[in-house]
């Protein structure tokens, strides 16, 4: 086994606020503990602050592993490392960008990844599909995909779908000087006494797909959303900021990077009942001249409430965010090109636009585990 | 304007008083401006209850205090408040190997207490985000009736209750349909039950077992059967023993039923005993 | 500055009245046409609220007078009333001041010019109502302007200054006037009450400008901020505090012109210092017994004097340096304590020493802790203070000592 060439390595886990918090924490802790098995030291920590920990909002936790305590010091007393060796995204829709704090704008997922570093994504999609939704690279890196959908891991009850073990296995594949597969497996064995968990790590190691990404590869289609922080001479005194006028939306903080799934609306079957408009927690619906309700995708966080409250079956369908390239509102499209829109609706949602046509029960509802039905809350409590 | 934790009552009062006096003195255009102060269950039901109570006695000021009850101190990572339901897991009440339940206090009855204690407030209500129209009407009434008013809403919280956000609506409905969170309004000291709560009270709808509600949320995943039973028992009491179901928790002793026959005529018309 | 004179019904002639410090402040509230005030009982400050209530009951002023459910509410109420454009007044004392501390702490950051008095009081070792400055001083780092009065007249004058300076757009900071409990709050003196017209000229109408919380001016006040913002916000406060120095001077000059009072310097009140070699330095009512001692000691041939500080924040560093470097030794009298601080001194002692540190010519500075909990400063104590100050003059190092005066062993 080789000794590391560097004196330390920094890994970040980008996850969806709150549901994947426990998952991210487990991954970061395990990285340090696995590296400890071969004598390294390390630290694991979360981005301090409460704002990012909102449902679905991209948030970050970190693991730093170093050859000794002195080398570790350079990575301590920080909120967030500016440069990482590996960025792990535990939901592939995160590659569309990260907007955790309003004034950070929308950041490319690879932003802190160093030249020739790694972007490790859990995804059931192909590396090509993932790359197609990742911002154009500024420097070369390696995209690594490891099988798995977005895990709705839960907060109090951790619904373990082995995402963490697969990720650790894949990490051992790309950073063996720091995290060895044997150490990962031994650690998991100790922690879970579960052979299938150990096998999941091996599976992650074997199934990880590596794709070298050159500068310039990726999409240039995502919105640039940047924000310059004002200085004390330009800020208004008294902690005052401009507020939105009634009906106006915040041009600086759009929230759409919180989405794993997005609602698409079948305007043909909509009965204009206003339920979606009433119950959307983020006031995303705008009423159209004809009394339909269309989603303002810039504001939608993908919570799924509208689909749940809509009384018409399959009138609002939640669809994997990775299948969309834009954030345009869709009513105009439907208005101009009825059939074209319905074809689009069917292609995206896998649901027939014609209510008389029965939709197969097994239609795909978003990416893997993000479908909450796949994760009923039933585990028993009493941890140690 | 962001106010300090526990200060929503004072914020509402100060804002309303400021607007009122400036308009009276002609320093500000005279017009109706709604003053609404939001608080959470932590800021409102625990820390700020005194200030809210004080505000509800200042009948000359028009302001609404809106308590957004997600049943925990959520911002600080979900700690239990006086509004956290019996037995729920929070970061201050984890379920462990020795203690299954760390939190065994019953939820404080805030709107009932405030309605009972502030006879001059013209509008005090309990609503729920899942009944949006009912809630909108309550807010509208509170603002229209004026004076200091209070609306307490139960707001299902995916983060703290541990469920997928798409079920928020459903959980709000269940809280009401299981009889855990009654919907009502007290207008000028007259209590109206609203929505399904009214239907339950009138016998038009059967209460659902609380288990339907509890089992959907990670915060109750550690419940044993006896915990569910206790929960059900306490909710049953709200409906069978309280003077007004879910609103006024005490009743008149059986031997004292004559109290109900009290002479309601004005003092000068009453015969001396 | 644009001046707006407003006719009032009461008589427009300067009058004289016998009134306590508290009543003098209440009179200032009337003259300033305060819009909202919030009261809660605690001695000694609440004398102001009692006096103000009477003025309202007698139809002398129109103020929204709110009896709050506690000091935290008191300060939050006026903070919010101020945000919608009201001129406000509030106050407290001792532990009450601390009960409100959270609201007090955030008010300066919000740049809301709340005017308060702190009727200085010991921090409630039970039954201790006497004066001690630690309540006011607890906010010394937070961005409040802190003037201190010596007499009832000065209390009224400083209150009028407080709205003028605090509400000035260059400053926009809250002000807490220090009034010594009992000696000032509750003793009656002859006070000249200015005319309404003159006050109206001195005190323009409060205008928050584009920071007014009103539906026609959509703003958010105090959204969530974190480490990405706070340094800049603190820097703005720092700048406002720096500007406050000149705004105080400006207001003082106008005040003198209009009312003929206020002394030579806005910041320091000097007594018999022209030829003095040894002076004492302090704030509030302790100047009174010290002046008596000075006259007595002068008769005996001692060249002694007094410098009284009128504004603790902004701290008039240049003025203090200029004044104190003329003397051989300065005794700093603290009616406060700062346990475990450098040389176990009081707050003033350490601040003055720090102001003088880089001066080539500096006097010996010796510290005194006196009059805590409202203990009277008697003449023998005053003599002892001057003697010890004089003794220290020969050796600058002897100033590294703080003497407790009038304490039983
Ligand atoms: C005086 C004070 N104490 C504690 C805090 C820390 N704090 C910030 S938000 C919060 C939780 C408030 O809970 P709640 O009012 O229920 O609102 P929620 O976050 O649940 O919406 C706490 C305790 C604070 N900001 N101020
Ligand atoms: S998913 Fe629906 S309810 Fe949720 S934010 Fe988007 S539009 Fe609103
Ligand atoms: S809930 Fe469904 S049917 Fe009702 S308005 Fe919305 S989209 Fe149309
Ligand atoms: S889920 Fe909603 S109620 Fe719960 S903490 Fe988040 S924003 Fe608040
Ligand atoms: Mg809460």
What does this protein structure show overall?
The complex is a heterotrimer of chains A (about 375), B (about 270) and C (about 400). Chain A has helices spanning about 20-35, 70-75, 125-130, 165-175, 180-190, 195-205, 275-280, 305-310, 330-335, 340-350, and strands at about 10-15, 40-45, 60-65, 85-90, 115-120, 140-145, 210-215, 240, 260-265, 285, 295, 315-320. In chain A, α1 crosses α4 (about 165-175). With about 375 residues, chain A is an alpha/beta fold. Chain A folds into two domains: about 10-215, Pyruvate-ferredoxin Oxidoreductase, domain 3 (3-Layer(aba) Sandwich); about 255-380, Alpha-Beta Plaits. Chain B is α/β, with parallel strands linked by helices and about 270 residues long. Chain B has one domain (about 10-270): 3-Layer(aba) Sandwich (Rossmann fold). Chain B is built from ten helices and six strands. Chain B has a six-stranded mixed beta sheet with strand order 1-2-4-3-5-6, with helices on both faces. By secondary structure, chain C is of the alpha/beta class. Chain C folds into two domains: about 10-260, 3-Layer(aba) Sandwich (Rossmann fold); about 270-405, Rossmann fold. A six-stranded mixed beta sheet of chain C has the order 10-12-11-14-15-16, sandwiched between helices. A five-stranded parallel beta sheet of chain C has the order 3-2-4-5-7, sandwiched between helices. In chain C, strands 1-8 form a two-stranded antiparallel sheet. Chain C starts with 14 loop residues before the first strand and ends in a 5-residue tail after the last strand. The model of chain C is unreliable at about 1-10 (pLDDT under 50). Chains in contact: A-B, A-C, B-C. The interface of A and B includes residues 50, 308, 372 and 377 of A. Bound molecules: thiamine diphosphate, iron/sulfur cluster (SF4) (3 copies) and magnesium ion. One iron/sulfur cluster binds near residues 74, 158, 159 and 160 of chain B.
């Amino acid at each position: 086994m080789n000794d590391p060439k560097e004196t330390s390595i920094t890994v970040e886990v980008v996850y969806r606020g709150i549901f994947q918090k426990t998952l991210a924490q487990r991954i970061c802790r395990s990285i340090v503990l696995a590296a400890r098995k071969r004598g390294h030291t390390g630290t694991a920590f979360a981005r301090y602050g409460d704002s990012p920990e909102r449902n679905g909002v991209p948030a970050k936790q970190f693991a730093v592993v170093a050859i000794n305590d002195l080398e570790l010091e350079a990575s301590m007393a920080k909120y967030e490392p500016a440069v990482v060796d590996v960025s792990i995204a535990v939901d592939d829709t995160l590659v569309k960008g990260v907007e955790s704090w309003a004034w950070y704008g929308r950041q490319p997922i690879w932003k802190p990844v160093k030249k020739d570093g790694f972007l490790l994504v859990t995804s059931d999609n192909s590396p090509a599909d993932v790359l197609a939704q990742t911002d154009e690279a500024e420097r070369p890196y390696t995209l690594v995909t490891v099988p798995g959908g977005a895990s709705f891991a839960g907060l109090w009850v951790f619904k373990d779908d082995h995402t963490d073990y697969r990720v650790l296995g894949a990490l051992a594949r790309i950073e063996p000087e720091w995290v060895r597969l044997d150490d990962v497996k031994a650690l998991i064995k100790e922690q879970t006494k579960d052979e299938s968990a150990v096998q999941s790590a091996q599976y992650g190691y074997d199934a990880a797909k590596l794709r070298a990404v050159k500068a310039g590869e990726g999409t240039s289609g995502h919105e640039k959303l940047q924000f310059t922080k004002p200085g004390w001479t330009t800020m208004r005194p008294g902690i005052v900021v401009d507020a939105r006028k009634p009906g106006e939306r915040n041009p600086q903080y759009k929230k759409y990077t919180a989405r794993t799934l997005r609602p698409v609306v079948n305007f043909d079957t909509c009965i204009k009942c206003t339920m979606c408009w009433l119950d959307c927690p983020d006031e995303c619906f705008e009423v159209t001249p004809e009394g339909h309700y269309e989603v303002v995708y810039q504001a939608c966080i993908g919570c799924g409430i509208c689909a749940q409250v809509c009384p018409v079956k399959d009138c609002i369908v939640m669809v994997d965010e990775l299948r969309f390239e834009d954030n345009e509102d869709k009513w105009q499209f439907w208005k101009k090109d009825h059939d074209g829109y319905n074809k689009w609706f069917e292609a995206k949602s896998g649901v027939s636009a014609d209510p008389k046509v029965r939709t197969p029960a097994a239609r795909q509802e978003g990416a893997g585990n993000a479908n909450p039905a796949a994760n009923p809350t039933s585990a028993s409590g009493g941890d140690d | 304007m962001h106010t300090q934790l526990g200060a929503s009552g004072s914020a509402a009062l100060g804002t309303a008083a400021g607007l009122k006096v400036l308009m009276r003195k002609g320093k500000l255009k005279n017009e109706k401006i709604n003053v609404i102060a939001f608080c959470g269950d932590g800021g409102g039901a625990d820390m700020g209850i005194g200030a809210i109570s004080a505000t509800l006695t200042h009948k000359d000021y028009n302001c609404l205090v809106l308590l957004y009850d997600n049943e925990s101190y959520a911002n600080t990572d979900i700690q239990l408040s006086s509004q956290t339901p019996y037995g729920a897991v929070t970061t201050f009440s984890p379920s462990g190997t020795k203690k299954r339940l760390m939190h065994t206090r019953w939820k404080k009855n805030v709107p009932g207490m405030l309605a009972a204690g502030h006879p001059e407030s013209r509008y005090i209500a309990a609503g729920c985000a899942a009944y949006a129209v009912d809630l909108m009407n309550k807010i509208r009434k509170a603002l229209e009736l004026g004076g200091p008013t209070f609306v307490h809403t139960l707001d299902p919280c995916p983060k703290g209750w541990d469920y997928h956000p798409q079920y928020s609506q459903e959980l709000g409905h269940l809280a009401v349909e299981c009889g855990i969170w009654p919907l009502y309004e007290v207008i000028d000291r007259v209590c109206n039950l609203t929505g399904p709560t009214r239907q339950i009270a009138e016998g038009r709808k059967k209460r659902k077992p609380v288990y339907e509600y509890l089992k959907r949320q990670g915060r109750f995943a550690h419940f044993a059967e006896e915990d569910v039973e206790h929960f059900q028992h306490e909710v049953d009491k709200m409906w069978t023993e309280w003077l007004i179901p879910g609103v006024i928790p005490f009743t008149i002793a059986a031997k004292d039923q004559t109290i109900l026959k009290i002479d309601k005529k004005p003092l000068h018309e009453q015969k001396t005993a | 500055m644009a001046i707006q004179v407003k006719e009032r019904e009461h008589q427009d002639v300067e009058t004289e009245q016998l009134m306590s410090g508290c009543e003098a402040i209440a009179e200032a509230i009337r003259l300033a046409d305060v819009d909202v005030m919030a009261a809660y009982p605690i001695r000694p400050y609440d004398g102001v609220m009692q006096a103000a209530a009477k003025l309202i009951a007698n139809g002398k002023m129109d103020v929204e007078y709110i009896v709050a459910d506690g000091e935290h509410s008191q300060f939050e109420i006026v903070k919010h009333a101020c945000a919608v454009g009201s001129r406000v007044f509030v106050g407290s004392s001792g532990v009450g001041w601390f009960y409100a501390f959270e609201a007090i702490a955030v008010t300066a950051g919000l740049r809301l010019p709340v005017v308060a008095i702190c009727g200085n009081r010991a921090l409630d070792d039970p039954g201790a109502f006497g004066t001690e400055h630690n309540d006011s001083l607890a906010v010394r780092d937070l961005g409040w302007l802190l003037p201190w009065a010596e007499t009832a007249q000065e209390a009224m004058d400083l209150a009028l200054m407080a709205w003028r300076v605090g509400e000035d757009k260059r400053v926009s900071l809250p002000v807490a006037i220090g009034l010594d409990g009992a000696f000032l709050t509750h003793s009656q003196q002859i006070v000249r009450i200015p005319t309404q017209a003159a006050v109206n000229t001195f005190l323009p109408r409060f205008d928050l400008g584009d920071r007014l919380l009103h539906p026609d001016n959509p703003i958010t006040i105090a959204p969530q901020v974190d480490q990405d913002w706070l340094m800049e916000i603190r820097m703005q406060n720092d700048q406002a505090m720096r500007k406050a120095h000149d705004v105080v001077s400006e207001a003082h000059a106008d005040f003198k012109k209009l009312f003929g009072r206020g002394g030579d310097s806005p910041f320091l009140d000097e007594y018999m210092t022209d030829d003095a070699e040894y002076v004492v330095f302090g704030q509030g009512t302790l100047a009174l017994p010290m002046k008596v001692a000075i006259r007595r000691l002068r008769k005996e041939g001692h060249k002694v004097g007094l410098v009284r500080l009128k504004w603790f924040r902004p701290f008039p560093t240049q003025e203090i340096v200029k004044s104190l470097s003329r003397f051989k030794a300065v005794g700093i009298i603290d009616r406060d304590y700062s346990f475990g601080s450098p040389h176990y001194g009081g707050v003033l002692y350490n601040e003055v020493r720090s102001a003088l540190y880089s001066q080539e010519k500096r006097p010996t500075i010796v510290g005194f802790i006196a009059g805590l909990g409202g203990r009277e400063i008697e003449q023998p104590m005053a003599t002892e203070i001057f003697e010890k100050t004089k003794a220290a003059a020969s050796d600058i190092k002897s100033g590294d000592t703080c003497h407790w005066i009038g304490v039983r062993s």
